[in-house]
Amino acid sequence: MSERTNEDIISGATLLLQLNRNRQLFQTVLTNPKRFESTVVYELKKFVPIRQRGQTLEDVQRQTKELLGELQAAVESEPEDNEDKTDEEQDLPLHKGKRADHDQLPDSIKAIWEQNAERWKKIKALYYTCQDIKEPCDRAESLNALKETWYKYKSEFARYDDYVIENSDETAQKETTPVDYAKAITNARSYLSKAVKDDKLLNKRKAALADDADDKTILDYNTSLQSVMDRVQLLLNSGEIIGDDLRQKLTDAGVVFPEGKPSETVEPSENADSTDDKDIDNEQGQEN
User: Fold this and answer.
1) What is the pLDDT of residue 167?
2) What is the DSSP string of the chain?
3) Each residue of 33-65: pLDDT tens digit?
4) Which distant-in-sequence residues (6+ apart) come within 8 Å of 223 by Cβ?
5) C-alpha distance from residue 219 to each of 83, 153, 205, 280 (Å)
6) Distances (CA, A) of 34 to 14, 46, 210
7) Which residues contact 149 (CB under 8 A, 6 or more apart)?
């Protein structure tokens, strides 16, 4: 890479001025461009992920006000003695408590409670971090992580609350034949291929993380993500291999692959072993 000239550095400083409106920094760079080259590069790099999400500093500031305002009520509603309790015993904010039939739920659904207890710790840490960071460009990444974790927290509790326990007699009658098993594996692989084709799931994730994302867009992404994670868990539980290229594309789209116990990070729903191979575009019904 060729050495940057003073003109290059000033051009970068001009672009930075347009982004952060920090005229004092701009004037400082003009006094000795070479001396402040690394400062200009460093400050510009802060804006790369913001611009990749199609956001401006005004968007970050507006999201900060909305998200931290919503979370303030949740943080203040947490019982004072919560930190002295285990994850299993905690009263998690903005939720009515465990179901009366909690102990009868499948392990994957019961696990949501403890998983959300861990998410809540992360949410609180990010919440206080975002409060302490003054500059929007410095806050953007923590704010984005906070938004993603908070929406996951809420969507998982919705899954917990909405789960319907099947009749035990009906469940006992469901036997998986070798043909059914092979079909389930084939359908799972086909589903994952469709999810990453043309970046379908990745684009849904970007739309859901956008500052102007509405509830329908966020729900659409979370539903599609959970369906993908179900298929991933099915393949992993069956000892199937997921190639590096597919794994990377799924990771970019928001799928978290387990390092230890699969059920701790990729939670299957009751439909994980379904042989239904409907296209990911139709998770929320036929789209226009």
Assistant:
1) 61
2) -PPPPHHHHHHHHHHHHHHH--HHHHHHHHH-TTTTHHHHHHHHHTTHHHHHTT--HHHHHHHHHHHHHHHHHHHHHS-TTGGGS-TTT---TTS----TTGGGS-HHHHHHHHHHHHHHHHHHHHHHHHHH--SHHHHHHHHHHHHHHHHHHHHHHHHHHH--PPPHHHHHH----HHHHHHHHHHHHHHHHHHHGGGHHHHHHHHHHSTT--HHHHHHHHHHHHHHHHHHHHHHHTT----HHHHHHHHHTT----SS-GGGTS---TTTT------GGGBTB---
3) 888 888 877 777 776 666 666 767 777 788 888
4) 283, 284
5) 30, 12, 11, 13
6) 15, 20, 36
7) 119, 122, 123, 126
* 59: its two tokens: 């968007």
Both structure tokens of 261: 């116990």
**pTM for this one?**
0.50
